[in-house]
């Protein structure tokens, strides 16, 4: 488990993770209207937040891990000083056009119903939530015993949990979509088709109703 500066260096030097991050950032920035405010939920060390701020978006950050946030403070010190990046804590007292949650932040929740209820008070009508979550159908995980042991649960219930320190869960997209309703609808899902077998992450775009 990487935390703080270790995670920051690891993620920046991983070509696979960097490709995922680049795709996520591009999707988020393409969707954001010029000058729109954004909340980076589970901001980690601030890599995405820094990119949003650099593109003219006032960026609120929520990061519950002390180690991660301390690294964020260093990585984004200029943006924090200029107040283009602003830290928030629960209850989330900001109003934004979009919420982003990159690299499986939402996989740490056992149920998303209460979270989407809270986010509905943060995201303006017509705005969006964009999340990258672990793909439960990724065949690269089939080599692991925990994946094979949970296939039946996934097919029956659309979800399963893996016993671990981080408490990571896997969800079928429709399970998350049901939790998001009635405040959000699932508007876009990536990948499609054969991509389900080859992509570790899936991107889910929810539109605020």
Description of the structure:
With 209 residues, the chain is of the alpha/beta class. The chain has one domain: Rossmann fold. Helices cover 39% and strands 24% of the residues. The protein has helices at 4-12, 15-31, 47-54, 66-75, 77-81, 113-120, 145-157, 173-180, 195-198; strands at residues 38-41, 59-62, 85-87, 96-101, 123-134, 159-161, 169-171, 184-190, 201-208. The strands form two sheets. A seven-stranded mixed beta sheet has the order 3-2-1-4-5-9-8, sandwiched between helices. α6 links the parallel β4 and β5. The longest helix has 17 residues, at 15-31. The N and C termini lie far apart (37 Å). The mean pLDDT is 95. One of its GO terms (molecular function) is 2-polyprenyl-6-hydroxyphenol methylase activity. This is Class I SAM-dependent methyltransferase.
Structure in a nutshell:
InterPro entries: SAM-dependent_MTases_sf. The chain has 209 residues and is α/β, with parallel strands linked by helices.
